[in-house]
Amino acid sequence: MTPIQPIPDSAIGNLILDDRQGGRFRVNRRVFTDDSILALERRKIFGKCWLYLGHESEVREPGSYIARDIVGRPIVLARDRDGQLHCYYNACTHRGATVCRQRAGKQRTFTCPYHAWVFDIQGKLVNIPGSDSMPQNCNADGSLNLARVERMESFRGFVFVCFDPDAEPLTDYLKGAADYLSYVADQGPQGMEIIGGAQEYSARANWKMLSENSVDGYHGMSTHSTYFDYLRGRDGTRIQRPPGGAGWTTDLGNGHMVSESIGEMAWGRPYARWVPGWGDDCRQEVEGIAAEIYRRLGPERGEVVVRGDRNMVIFPNLVVNDIMAVTVRTYYPSATGAMQINSWALAPIGESASSRDRRLRNFVEFLGPAGFATPDDVEMLESAQRGYAAGASAQAAWNDCSRGMFKDRPSKTDELQLRIFWRRWKQLMTGGSADQLQGP
């Protein structure tokens, strides 16, 4: 068999067919299978875009830190005794060994296990064994301190990094997604916090497929039918086909998008939409939470927080599911046809034990890797990845993402959200203009 040749950079744009007059939008399946494309993505997307690192609540106390890999780069986020955040590469400046070997904790210094160089919580080099053999004032310029990540900024508690020193400010990058992150941040009167621990799992599928799937309302009823059967049995809920069809998709700019609805979904929201399956004992508490939100945020914003459901993708690889619970999820390619996924539950600080219990039950039963939804999604993504092996045939070379192109306001079950993602992907991969991002 003749091997498939890598796609030259100049031909990347031909992999997205965007016929706006004809109402056809197609994506060539080589974007999911070609190693040369992933190599280009690492430079032009992951090397240029703002990427979610963590939440400020995870490093609340002085001396606390988290250590994470961001698209293969080991990074530490730490808070010093003055309350300032610091973000640096987890690599000793002597010979490169990782100095922070735990995922999270609280301490004053990091000692490299290789040659015992010591760095403080700010990343400054504070001790070198046998320093008399080093040049005098060898770190006067700070070059032996842990290297700081090029850019780190925070918005409403969400901490992002960027490896491009010339990148636009985070708030400019977020564009309309900033408003939706604020809807999440506004849920708790005392702020929001990550509930301890992370869910980590993998999928044998290209990373971009999870960006598509996370805001795709079209697959809900067919892929997650078991969950809707469960809701019918538990709550006696009547579920229309397709659920959420009355919802809509919003282009938030820069490739970010949200699929949302108000009061359409069948499940309960801890903050704050009661359902019969929770029992009458908690109804008064849930209604009280809703009343507090309306008083604090006003009727319009309160309605969005209390009764709204949102699935948002912040390009390229951050998903915030603000539905039956709040999930923060990232996913990075480990290979062209594989990704590593991490998700965290986000909750209001100080919520009652009963509300936290309802939240975690919702989180685990639907959103977690052992719940109703995630195993279904992983199975479908992996099935599609296997199907892409047929892409060598001209008849099986393209995905169609054309649903709703002639609608004034495409619904959640249309595919505007996919087109938003792919137009931004094409712009960054080809160096095109921002004019490419607009369209139905």
Explain this structure.
- It is a single chain.
- The protein has 440 residues and is α+β, with helices and mostly antiparallel strands.
- It folds into 2 domains: 51-166, 3-layer Sandwich (Rieske Iron-sulfur Protein), CATH 2.102.10.10; 195-432, Naphthalene 1,2-dioxygenase Alpha Subunit, Chain A, domain 1, CATH 3.90.380.
- The chain contains 11 helices and 21 strands.
- The chain has helices at 35-44, 170-174, 177-185, 208-214, 220-223, 225-235, 283-297, 299-307, 353-367, 373-387, 416-430; strands at 16-19, 24-28, 51-55, 64-70, 73-79, 85-89, 104-106, 109-111, 118-120, 125-127, 151-155, 158-162, 192-194, 199-203, 248-253, 256-262, 308-314, 318-322, 326-335, 338-348, 398-400.
- The strands form 5 sheets. Strands 13, 14, 15, 16, 17, 18, 19 and 20 form an 8-stranded antiparallel sheet that branches. A 4-stranded antiparallel sheet has the order 6-5-4-7, with no helix packed on it.
- Helix 7 (283-297) packs antiparallel against helix 8 (299-307).
- InterPro entries: Rieske_2Fe-2S, Rieske_2Fe-2S_sf, Ring_hydroxy_dOase_asu_C_dom, Rng_hydr_dOase-A.
- Keywords: 2Fe-2S, Iron, Iron-sulfur, Metal-binding, Oxidoreductase.
- Belongs to the bacterial ring-hydroxylating dioxygenase alpha subunit family.
Short summary:
It comes from Verticiella sediminum. The chain is α+β, with helices and mostly antiparallel strands and 440 residues long.
